[in-house]
Amino acid sequence: MVISETSSIEKVKENFPDILYKYRKWANPLHKTIISDQELFFAAPDSFTDKRDCRFPLDWNFTYEFFQPFLETTFNGGKSQLLEKDYEFELRNQYNKILGNKEKEENFIEEYYQLSNHHLGVLSLTARNNNIDIWKSDYADNFKGFCVGINFKDCLELVWIFK
């Protein structure tokens, strides 16, 4: 897996070879659309056998200090109606309703990943078209499938969304 922490498409391109490969099955009509329609399918992260396999790693910060600006925004002007100490108490009270304990934090993370499964997709490609293990696997239907080379750097130009 290549992880790039940049917003420059040129920097991301440096991490990839010119051609990447996708192994497919002839027996599956949907797999043939990669040739007939030049169509790539991005699978939902939770569609893999291991449901945690494609969870994009995030550094979760559930501290009150981190959430305080968000809480102040959502409290919608309540500061002007309360004393400073009461306002701080109310913000902490709101924080504890949303998070504030391990179970709520775990639920928050799980809800995030459930939402991300509807908005993110995973495209599995490889740099090798001669990987015997993949050819004999289910991906290439035990040598009965096919392998397509994709100029991935050109595809990045079409789908670049990181800004």
In short:
With 163 residues, this protein is mostly helical. Helix content is 38%, strand content 7%.
Can you walk through the features of this model?
The protein is mainly α and 163 residues long. It is 38% helix and 7% strand. It is built from 7 helices and 2 strands, in the order H-E-H-H-H-H-H-E-H. It has helices at 9-13, 33-36, 64-74, 84-98, 102-116, 132-135, 152-159; strands spanning 19-24, 146-151. The protein has a two-stranded antiparallel sheet. Helix 3 (64-74) packs across helix 4. The longest helix has 15 residues, at 84-98. It is elongated. The two termini are 21 Å apart. The model has no long low-confidence stretch (mean pLDDT 82).
How many DSSP H or I helices? 7
Give me the oligomer status: single chain
Could you give the count of β-strands? 2
Structural class of the helix and strand makeup?
A: mainly alpha
User: Order of strands side by side in the largest beta sheet?
Assistant: 1-2
What are the SSEs and their pairings?
Blueprint (H helix, E strand, L loop, with lengths): L8 H5 L5 E6 L8 H4 L27 H11 L9 H15 L3 H15 L15 H4 L10 E6 H8 L4
Antiparallel strand pairs: 1-2
Helix pairs in contact: 3-4
Entry keywords:
163 residues; mainly alpha; two-stranded antiparallel ribbon
